[in-house]
Amino acid sequence: MRNEIAFYLVAAFTVAFAIAAMTLRDLVHCALCAAGAFAGLAMLYLQLDAEFVGFAQLLVYVGAIAVLILFAVLLTRGDEVRPGRAAPARSWWMGAGAAALVLAAIAAPILLSPSLEGGAPGAASAPVRRIGEELMTRYVLPLELVGVLLTGALLGAVVIAMREEPRTEDKAGGIPPRFTPTPGNPANPR
Amino acid sequence: MKTLDQIFVLTQHWLTGLAPAALQPLVSMLLIIAALMAVFGTCFALTTILERKTLGRMQNRYGPNRVGPFGLLQPAADGIKMLTKEDIVPEAADKALHFLAPLALTAPVWLAFAVLPFGRNMSAIELDAGILFFFAIGSASELAVFMAGWSSQNKYSLLGAMRAIAQMISYEVPLVLASVPVLMAAGSLSLPEIVRAQSGYALGWIPRWNVLTPWGAAGFGVFLVAAAAESNRCPFDLPEGESELIAGFLTEYSGFKYALFFLGEYLGLFAVTGLGVTLFLGGWHAPASWLEWLPSWGWFGAKFSALIFLFIWMRATLPRLRLDQLLNFAWKFLVPLALIDLVAAAAWLKSGGWQFAWALETRWLLCATLLAPAYVCLGRHWRGGTPKPRRYHYAQ
User: Fold this and answer.
1) What is the ipTM of this complex?
2) Both B104 and B70 in a single domain?
3) Predicted TM-score (pTM) of this structure
4) Which domain covers residue B121, as residue numbers?
């Protein structure tokens, strides 16, 4: 009973934040609400005794991904926040279809899985030690592959972000030298 | 002596026993929460006065000395001043976020104290993944800083918030990486377990604290620097650089909200210092076997105070860095050093079974040959020698 109340509270919290993230007008508010929804998901994991997953969710999604979303919003936004309600985009049915497909893809294996047949499972807590051992033995190859993939992504980001130093012959025409106003153009344009 | 050591635990049990049985879990929790808030609230007040006094002494002036004997009541006066100040909210500010930001910064920090073991049997909750909890909670503060900077609708606030977030994200990496060898040595993510792994004495008299191993010493150094940066302490207090950013994301805050930010910052410092004591300085263990009769929480408090004093000392001694130096230092020096430290720790732990004569000395030499050249090379050469003046791409 107590668990159920807690579940409904957390679920309501998560869903409310998710709805707010979709309907609010200001993109920064949306991003912050998305972070709230991430935190709600983490609470759900914790409620299921999945300590590691819950904390990792907080660390990765609230600590890193939410900040990433915020930076993306700030770097790309024009000041297009208009009052009033948003008219749903014309392609809303595509979004709804994609959401339904994803839901089906997640729900189908869960509903078909044999572990549901034995009624409610007991305390299925996976201690961190167990997760670590499994990752290092049975799932070591996927782990390595993910590591390689992430390293590749990191290198790619560095390459994209790297600023090419101007070559010596470009230097004269490149960055203008300091404090030398061009003739006819006063140092202080105002 | 056993009673003195466990006096807080026993008091808590006794007080809980007075409550009706149905309420006992609740009362037990509330007691712990009240104790933590009282202790660290007082700690905050004491640290502010101690910091101002110490800074004054180091800078050859008196520091606060008007309120009460030796100025000891200064924190009370500060508190009253903060509470009675007008709370100014800018006209253009995002009111809701502006109000929520100080709360979002301060509330999670309190949670971090829940997993720290302050003495024998003295941690509020013993989580299997305690250290993960600590870092997960800490990551919420970046969003709070962003909320503060963005909702103020002020370019200095936003700049300060961006700097703060860049700094926090960058220094979280070496902070976590420096703690990983400790987890490897203890074989556990639970903080009480980590403290237990540091009990006992090598050769009969050297305590088995992590800081007294080569990898632990290097890790502790990285951890201290990253902790100072993570809690925005001088010399890493760029996000609120008064002279360039007029206090950064705090610009538009006044009165009690400002005090809340202040509180959150100091509590963050306390939490990360407590973690440092737990991870590297043996937690609540005494430094020698003949000192074990002193209560365990006393030892924790002593190490904790020493580290806080070290942070104050650093603030009085070191000048503020520039932002590009700060980020370069994190990514090009601390992170590689922490990674090499990881290898050194692995070598140390792997060679733990060596039995021949001079085994300990050989292990020290092995780790030192891994760490010392890396330290010198990273510090001198790979960073490109002494830092050059910054080239500004847009402001020249």
Assistant:
1) 0.80
2) no
3) 0.84
4) 90-343
